[in-house]
Write a structure and sequence with these properties.
Elements (H helix, E strand, L loop, with lengths): L11 E7 L8 E7 L17 H14 L2 E7 L1 H7 L1 H15 L6 E5 L11 E4 L7 H22 L7 H4 L5 H10 L20
Parallel strand pairs: 1-4, 4-5
Antiparallel strand pairs: 1-2, 2-3
Length: 198
């Protein structure tokens, strides 16, 4: 069972990102502040939930959250500052957009750059431990999927409707055959020596 809060004295926001390991598209991040007593029977890490359910949960999260925000860092910025820093920047942008200012931040993962001197706690697999991080993972994932579905119409050969920019064999083959699109991260390696198709 997930927990509603990491601490109980400060306004707490949960943060997570989506799209860190992709070859194409932005990295998205979300920040969510939930009511203190929030609980939910099925809300969990977005990777553990079906696509249909993720979108149902997104509506519910947005309805019940005290505040939420979603932000992104595009592929050109990722190439300039690297994906780790881009993930932190996307989270900072999301936190900055919150209509309620958090006093404490919990982040999925083991690293984070401090935001405006607000205290924070990094939690490995936090999206399966705390509702606010799970909610952030749902928002980041669904908004990123929406974005990738839109740009997939421009470049159908790369199969983004299915892979959402992740390095599937079909996606890698398309990059090697057709080259990069304006949405690709040029600093990411396309070829994998473990794949015998090349």
């Amino acid at each position: 069972m997930l927990l509603s809060r990491y601490q109980h004295s400060l306004i707490e926001a949960g943060c997570d990102e989506a799209g860190r390991g992709c070859l194409a598209g932005p990295v998205f991040a979300a920040a969510v502040i939930l009511p203190n007593d929030f609980t939910h029977p099925i809300l969990n890490d977005s990777k553990q939930i079906t696509e249909k359910l993720r979108y149902q949960l997104r509506d519910e999260i947005e309805l019940k959250a005290v505040a939420f925000a979603v932000a992104r860092v595009d592929n050109n910025e990722i190439d300039k500052i690297n994906i780790l820093n881009a993930s932190f920047l996307a989270m900072h942008r999301a936190i900055h957009q919150l209509t309620t200012i958090p006093e404490f931040i919990i982040v999925d993962g083991n690293r984070f750059n401090k935001y405006n001197n607000i205290p924070h706690k990094c939690i490995v697999k936090g999206d399966s431990k705390f509702f606010s991080i799970a909610a952030a993972s749902i928002l980041a994932k669904t908004y990123r999927d929406d974005y990738m579905n839109t740009i997939a119409l421009e470049y159908p050969e790369y199969d983004w409707l299915s892979n959402k920019g992740y390095p599937t064999i079909k996606h890698r083959q398309a990059v090697i055959k057709l080259g990069h699109t304006p949405y690709h991260r040029l600093t990411f390696r396309v070829k994998d020596t473990q794949l015998k198709i090349f």
